[in-house]
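User: For my dataset I need records formatted as: sequence, then structure tokens, nothing else. Please produce one.
Assistant:
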Amino acid sequence: MKMSVLGGTGLSVSRIGLGLAALGRPGYINLAHAEDLGGNYNEAAMEQHAHAVLDEAWRAGVRYFDAARSYGLAEKFLSSWLASRSIARGDIVIGSKWGYIYTAGWRASAEVHEVKDHTLPVLQRQWTETQALLGNYLDLYQIHSATIESGALENAAVLDELARLKSRGVRIGLTITGPGQAATLRQAMAVNVDGMRLFQVVEATWNLLEPSVGPALSEAKNAGLGVLIKEALANGRLTQRNRDPAFAASLALLRSEAASRNISIDALALAACLAQPFTDCVLSGAASAAQLRSNLNADAVELDPATLARLATLAEPPETYWAIRKRLPWN
């Protein structure tokens, strides 16, 4: 697995990381997520399943792992895996997030799975909860899905608390979402506390269907921020699982390009993310070891400019992309 340095943080990360959003809770919006878990939502079974995927990632050279308080028991599963495998602190990089509260009660059919809250009390409580599980393993702490509307980037108490954590050696970042990703990122880059830029890393949605944040990510990269890419497969829409008739022509193009390189569609889509000059690390959101193995083939794929130009024709208007994402069912 190729490695890179995450911006100016000094952290060495694998070019492909593993996000635990689909492994730590029964419900998620990835297409056919229920199939990945076999309908078995027993906590012990899900922990064992998560450990199997983490083992596969470790064997393949994945060295960046991404969790969040709202990912159900993802932090707990990650913590028990670290302990049971005796992973050394310096051999792995771990990030987690605060700002969403998990509300599903371990039910895949819950009406509401998570609630955003970017206030100081939530930051303080969730930091304590994360520390109790991940302790000194935690390298990066991020605002989860920051937006201009959430107010976190203008909340002096929140920013001061994040600066305090930063002074203790934790890198501070933010994840961004929605059609306003670029505006949120540019506002975050202007946030200074005591004369120093606060945010060191950004985690953004960039994929072949939603590349609009690309110019802002280039600005962030040039300014020294680390860049993590999430939702590279558009929650499964950039895989064979996308059976939407309206996507048929796009799927045919993906199949053709992937077949010409003897790789899967998902590996092709991830390779397109890796080809972007601003990318430090792309997160696989695999929910099974088989999915992860397929995803990791992207590490060996080099896409030429002509191929990238053809794939660029898949892009949707940001408003369309995010409207479709909002309608994806938790399954």
